[in-house]
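note to self — DONT lose this again. spent like an hour looking for the file last time. sequence + predicted structure for the chain T wanted, 75 res
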Amino acid sequence: MRQLNTGKLYTLPGRVRPLYAAPSGEGYRLYDYRLGSTVPPRFIVRADGRLLDWHGGETPWTVDDLLEVRGSSPH
């Protein structure tokens, strides 16, 4: 599985709202940059790299679909 950097922002193809990754077990939780971790994560990255929506439903994306937002940091 591709390792995400907790100091970087990411987007998904066709989406503009940036996400940041927080390690969670063997995967990650992807939080909306503007709302932070005070709300449920937008996506969960499973250990196998598949992304689940915040309800736990399958999405068509994997961790490899995440695009790094250049020059941005959540901190």
